[in-house]
Amino acid sequence: MTPMLAYLDAGMGSLIFQVVAAGLVSAAVVFGGLIAQLRVFVSRVILRRPPAPVETDEPASATDADPASQRKAA
Amino acid sequence: MTSTARVAGSFRDPSGFVFSRQGVIHRQIAASYAPQYERLMASGLYDELVRLQLLLPHEELDIRLAFSDTAHKVIRPEQLRFVSHPFEWCFSQLKDAALATLQIQREALNRGMTLKDASAYNVQLHDARPVLIDTLSFDLYEPGSPWVAYRQFCQHFLAPLALMSRTDVRLGQLFRTYIDGVPLDLASRMLPFRTRFSLGLGLHVHAHAKVQQKYADQSAAPSSRRTAGMSLRALQSLVTHLEQTVQSLQAPSQRTEWDDYYAANNNYSQKGLGAKERVVQQLLADRPPQTVWDLGANNGRFSRIARDAGARAVVAWDIDPNCVDANYRQAIARRERGHFPLLLDLTNPSPAIGWANRERQSLAERGPADALLALGLIHHLAISNNVPLGQVAEFFRGLTRRLIVEWVPKQDSQVKKLLATRPDIFPHYRQPDFEAEFARQFRILQKLEVDDTCRTLYLMEALPG
Predict the structure, then answer these.
(1) What is the pLDDT of residue B257?
(2) Average pLDDT over every residue of B363-386
(3) Which fold has domain B261-462?
(4) Cα–Cα dist B193/B200, whole Å
C-alpha cells in the first residue's frame, strides 16, 4: 500500500525546517533524559533521598491547574 | 422526495466529502482512500481514538446510500449539536483543540498512520470537549517521511495561541481573516521580542517563519518528502515538543471589560438577581426549547438555567474572551454536555467566509435557535452602538422562533452610565417604542416585571413569514 499524497501544500521550507527541528529536539530529549537520570542518581545515592511519587497518565488539557503538569518548552 | 446535497465547505480533500440527506450529515469515502480507511479501522486506531473521545464515532451504512458512484463506503458520523468556527473559540478551547490534535497524531504514529492535515476546522466542540470530526484525515505513515501537516498545525494552532497568550487575547480573531491559519511571518512580527528566546516559540514560529520565507517560491515535490530521512523517533520527539510548547502557553492574565460583571460590576441586588432567574425559568418552562442561544451570556449563568430547563444545546455567546474562557472551563469541570461558550460581537457577527463565501457558515445560517435569550443586552445595542430598535428586532427575528428579551429603561443605572459622557440622542428609546418595534417581528406572549429592578422581561414568538 502506498501513502496518498497530501492534498495540502506542506511547504518546502516547512519540510526542510522540520527535519532540522526534529533533530534538535531529539538531541534535547536525549540530553534531558541523561540529566534527569543524573539527578535521580545524585538524589538517591549521594544525597540518599527517597524516590519521588509516580505521576498519573491523565490526558493533557488547558484546564489543568497543577503547574507541575505543565513543563516549560524552553 | 429526499433532500440530498453536498456540504459547500467539503471539497478540498479528494479522499471523500460530506453530504447532507434530509438534514442528517453523511460522509462518502472515495474508492482511492480505501486502503487508508481500512487500515484506520483494522489497526485499532479508530477504536482507541473513539475510546479516548478524540474522534467523532460513526456507523457504516449501506453503499447504496452513497451520494455518487465513486464511493468505497458511506458513513454516518454522530451528529454535532452545533458547529462553531475557530475564531469563535476562546484561548482554552483552541489550546484543548491543539493538544487533542497532537495526541491524535501521537496515537496515529504508534499504529503506522499519520494525520495528513491539522486544520482547526477539522476539530469541533462535542459535548464540551474538542473532537476530530474528519475521519479521512489519516494517511499511511511511510518511514522516513516528515509530518506534512506540521506547517498547518503551526499556523492553525501554535501561532494564534502564542499571539493570544503573549500579545493580546483578541488576536484569535485573525482566524476570520486568515482561513488557513495565521501566517508565521506575521505571527513572528507581532510576538514580543523575548519569545525568540523561548525554545518552543523560537523554533516552531520564529525560525520556522524565516526558513519558510527563504523557500517561499518552491513547492515540495513528493520525492523530497519521502527522502527527507526523518526517523519515527525524531517525528515523535517533534510531536512531544509541540505538546510541551502548547502546554507552556497560559491563558492571558489581562483584565477585560466584563469578566467581573456578576462579581462586582452589575446593578442587581441579590433579590433582583434571584427574581430575574425565577422569571427566566418560568418563561422557559412553558415550552422547553431544544436549542437556545444566549446572547451576551457572560459567565453562562442564564445559559445554565436554559440547560436545566431541558435544552439539548445551549450556545452561550459573549464578546468578552475572559468570560467565554471561564464559562468553558466551568463546563469542562462540570462535564456539561450540550453547553457551548463561544465568542461573538453582535455588532459584527460571524460572517460566511472561505471560498465563494460559502465554505464556513455565518451566524444566521447556523440557526435558527428554538429560543434566544437577550438579557441585559438591548441597551448595549441601542445606546452604545446606536442600532435602531427596529433593526435589533429584525436581527433577532432572523435568529430565532422564540425570544426572551429584557427591556432596560433609561432610568436604569447601567443606561445612565452609558449616557453619562454623551448627549442623549435616543428620544425613541422608550418602552412603548420598544414594544411597537418588536411587535412588527414578534407577538408578545408574556411581560413580567423583575422585582427590585426597573427592568421588564418579555417572552415573544416570531410572527410567521
Answers:
(1) 74
(2) 96
(3) Rossmann fold (3.40.50)
(4) 14
Contact A31/B at CB under 8 A: no
Contact assignment for A21 to B243 by CB distance below 8 Å: no
Share of chain B above pLDDT 90, in %: 85
| Contacts of range A56-63, beta carbons closer than 8 Å, 24 or more positions apart | A59/B52, A59/B99, A59/B103, A60/B99, A60/B103, A60/B243, A60/B247, A61/B96, A61/B99, A61/B332, A62/B91, A62/B92, A62/B93, A62/B95, A62/B96, A62/B99, A62/B251, A62/B329, A63/B92, A63/B96, A63/B329, A63/B332, A63/B333
Task: Please tell me if residue A68 touches chain B, with a CB cutoff of 8 Å.
Answer: no
Output the nine-digit C-alpha cell for B196: 525568540
Residue B409 has a CB neighbour count (10 Å cut-off) of: 16
Per domain, the residue ranges of chain A are 18-50
Hey, are the CB atoms on B201 and A60 less than 8 Å from each other? no
Residue B54 CB contacts under 8 Å (≥ 6 apart), including other chains: B100, B103, B104, B107, B131, B132
CATH number of the structural domain B86-248: 1.10.510
pLDDT over 80 at A4, yes or no: no
Among the listed residues B249, B243, B248, the one whose alpha carbon sits nearest the alpha carbon of residue B109? B243
Task: For residue B322, give the nearest of B344, B303, B339, B299 by alpha carbon.
Answer: B299
Q: Are residues B148 and A6, on separate chains, in Cβ contact within 8 Å?
A: yes
Which among B116, B234, B244 has the least Cβ separation from residue A71? Answer: B244
Spell out the domain ranges in chain B. 4-77, 86-248, 261-462
Q: Cα separation of B206 and B429, whole Å?
A: 52
Judging contacts by C-beta atoms under 8 Å, the chain B residues touching residue A19 are: 146, 228-230, 234
Q: Under an 8 A CB cutoff, do A18 and B150 touch?
A: yes
Q: What is the mean pLDDT of residues B66-75?
A: 93
* Residue A45 distance to chain B (closest CA, Å): 30
Q: B211, B213, B218, B332: which to substitute to probe chain A, counting the most A Cβ within 10 Å?
A: B211
Whether A50 and chain B come into contact, CB under 8 Å, resolves to no
For the cut 90, the answer to whether the pLDDT of residue B264 exceeds it is: no
